[in-house]
Amino acid sequence: MPYRVNPYLITRSLHPENQETPIHFLRQPAIPEEYFFKRNHFFYPVPGQNSYQLQVKGKVTKSVNFHYDELQRMPSRKLKMVLECAGNKRSKFKPKVYGEQWEDGAISQGEWQGIPLNTLLAVTGVDPDVREVVFEGYDTGRRTDINEVVPFARSLPLQKALHPDTLIAYKYNGKPIPFKHGFPLRLIVPGWYGMASVKWLKTITLIDETFKGPFQTIDYVYYPDENSSLKAYPVSIINVNSIIQQPLDRSVIEQDAEHIIEGIAWTGKGDIKQVQVSFDKGKVWREAILTNTSSTAYGWTKWHINWKPPEIGEYTIQARAVDSAGRRQPEKALWNKKGYGFNAVSEINVKTE
């Protein structure tokens, strides 16, 4: 009997723990939790009894502490969705930028279950002058740039917070969320990069001003100008993007055979309408076959195309996706000094023999 070979997470750092999903080797529509990418800014928090309480406070009619068991008894929703780190593919930027040098695997997909946040806010009430909702996690640490110990905290505009698909989740793929992915409670914000989906959720605070936390105003901001904050704007909605899963980059393949070129495409706006593939560095584009276009509003779309190399040699294979909002992967990603949102045309090189 042959040995069963399984892929491994790809480690980018140990302290804090940051690991990539082996995305080129997985075909499941829901990524198992053991292969879900890990993105942390600090060490893991130490769980305690208070972890099972979620306080909603601030500009509300009444502050309420919701218990974990109470939340599980409320009407819930299930969403299958992509969760992508804003720094996914950072290693591909030219010139290079500082930060975790993610390749293609800071992305995963699965089913989250929880209570719409608007259900909780209907209980607490919302003051008419509320502008943003702040979400604070139990994970804390020292930021050397400001020399302060801070929690990981982010805000959402009130309109996004009230969207029926913004969830306070307690399950992933039908089981309690694994501790390393936010147990017991995690905010889930479909269509936005993963920094918005705060883990180990501690408090929710409604405010009548603009939140100024460092993970909102220093990190997760696009800085197109390397030397200033001119034209800076916040990271939010996921860019239209794609990955060529197989063959792998720098593969050697048979010339006298037909090959399946396959991958995934995703977007934070609408859905994927088209994936095009080129085998001649963009001179001619062929349309790929999309295989799960109606499976979920927030999930990735699988695609494939058959190809037989015309002769022995080296080839560049490129893929680009188009979404229903009219966004197309550009030839070159918008360079920014923190390395967010890379979504240039996907590209691999293969050699035939």
UniProtKB/TrEMBL annotation:
Molecular function per GO: heme binding; molybdenum ion binding; molybdopterin cofactor binding; sulfite oxidase activity
Cofactor(s) annotated in UniProt: Mo-molybdopterin
Signal among keywords: no
InterPro entries in the cross-refs: Ig_E-set, MoCF_OxRdtse_dimer, Mopterin_OxRdtase_euk, OxRdtase_Mopterin-bd_dom, OxRdtase_Mopterin-bd_sf
Sequence ranges assigned to domain Moybdenum cofactor oxidoreductase dimerisation in this UniProt record: 236-351
GO biological process: sulfur compound metabolic process
Alphabetically ordered keywords of this record: Metal-binding, Molybdenum, Oxidoreductase
Domain Oxidoreductase molybdopterin-binding: 45-213
PANTHER family assigned to the protein according to its UniProt record, in alphabetical order: SULFITE OXIDASE, MITOCHONDRIAL (PTHR19372:SF7), SULFITE REDUCTASE (PTHR19372)
Protein name per Swiss-Prot or TrEMBL: Mo-co oxidoreductase dimerisation domain-containing protein
Species of provenance: Salipaludibacillus aurantiacus
Lineage, top ranks: Bacteria, Bacillati, Bacillota, Bacilli, Bacillales
